[in-house]
């Protein structure tokens, strides 16, 4: 009896301290090239196979909370694209490390990030769908997928991940992401909610989700740019009045020649700007092979063609049903403001060299248990390999359904992003018709106004981050950690 009590007490102590773990020992990360200190918490990485018939292997990096692992929320992070690696979030936004660039060709030095989201949560960075980042297919040479299939595969991943890490099942679980993850997150949340109703095992303690500068709805997103450009002083009153009169508020799908002609004036005014943050210059210097082609003299057949690339039209139609409208997704080379002449995935105005160098180093891949380049291909911030079906439609019904079921939702926007402007997110959240519980007001970080918010019934909050671009934690890491940590525990923002 005494021995039994001893073992019971030992087990309780292990559980309380967060030491006990069921994860395969092969997933534990013991070191990272470029980092010479002590990890602030345990880190794991590896693959989980979903859709066994096609052999989709999804890669994850898991940073255990630095605070209280067995009580803090578990948060799944997804970057967008579709086709962008969630190491974007890990390296450039809210991962455990800051990456210090070294002389050209040398690996960066890693330093602890004081604003890492792992300070207050357990966080999983997932490369999804297969074919993105380090995730790969076993049995397919063509990477054809879409919104609904991605949600189903990611749901399978989540269930299998919790089977490997069962000690985290009691923790609150949240899904988060930005940009085209505005599609990934609600569709996945819906799958998880339905799985809970069906008592799919294991039962996940799902509480809610957050999306940033999120692609949501063709009409709201497509109509967001013109009022944003006017409000930010990027177009004159006269241009705004003329385009408003000609288009009658329908900017995303212009039918009249006069509307299109006036929209060209908007394009000409904004063509030289960094679409991800209008306050920032473009990273790439003129004359380099990755120069952004903001060429307003290109003959455009329709305003919707502003988002087209060199991909064959048949592939674009398979991906989006038709040419993707203004205001839609982000970092996979399908830019909604002007054509890019480069093939595959190129992110305009964005410096991805540190991540590309570090993640393509063989020692780094080995340290994080990623397959070699011969299996996954070269790591890219955003891939052009996917043929992607946008088959879930508008996310507004998803948000309505989820919030009516009691799941918490935070919709946040960097207010200087021109790719998915805050004006669209503000409009669609308001369109739900929910009663306003808190009228538009500032929220603060360290005593300073950090942005504005409006809170609705059904636990829906819309929040802006002042001065931030498309990837909010990258531009405003302190403020991002503030609203993230407060919202997760239900504190007032």
From TrEMBL:
<keyword id="KW-0325">Glycoprotein</keyword>
<dbReference type="InterPro" id="IPR018202">
    <property type="entry name" value="Ser_caboxypep_ser_AS"/>
</dbReference>
<comment type="function">
    <text>Probable carboxypeptidase.</text>
</comment>
<keyword id="KW-0865">Zymogen</keyword>
<keyword id="KW-1015">Disulfide bond</keyword>
<keyword id="KW-0121">Carboxypeptidase</keyword>
<dbReference type="Pfam" id="PF00450">
    <property type="entry name" value="Peptidase_S10"/>
</dbReference>
<dbReference type="InterPro" id="IPR033124">
    <property type="entry name" value="Ser_caboxypep_his_AS"/>
</dbReference>
<comment type="similarity">
    <text>Belongs to the peptidase S10 family.</text>
</comment>
<keyword id="KW-0645">Protease</keyword>
<dbReference type="GO" id="GO:0016747">
    <property type="term" value="F:acyltransferase activity, transferring groups other than amino-acyl groups"/>
</dbReference>
<keyword id="KW-0378">Hydrolase</keyword>
<dbReference type="GO" id="GO:0006508">
    <property type="term" value="P:proteolysis"/>
</dbReference>
<dbReference type="GO" id="GO:0005576">
    <property type="term" value="C:extracellular region"/>
</dbReference>
<dbReference type="InterPro" id="IPR029058">
    <property type="entry name" value="AB_hydrolase_fold"/>
</dbReference>
<feature type="signal peptide">
    <location>
        <begin position="1"/>
        <end position="22"/>
    </location>
</feature>
<keyword id="KW-0732">Signal</keyword>
<dbReference type="InterPro" id="IPR001563">
    <property type="entry name" value="Peptidase_S10"/>
</dbReference>
<keyword id="KW-0964">Secreted</keyword>
<protein>
    <recommendedName>
        <fullName>Carboxypeptidase</fullName>
        <ecNumber>3.4.16.-</ecNumber>
    </recommendedName>
</protein>
<dbReference type="GO" id="GO:0019748">
    <property type="term" value="P:secondary metabolic process"/>
</dbReference>
<dbReference type="GO" id="GO:0004185">
    <property type="term" value="F:serine-type carboxypeptidase activity"/>
</dbReference>
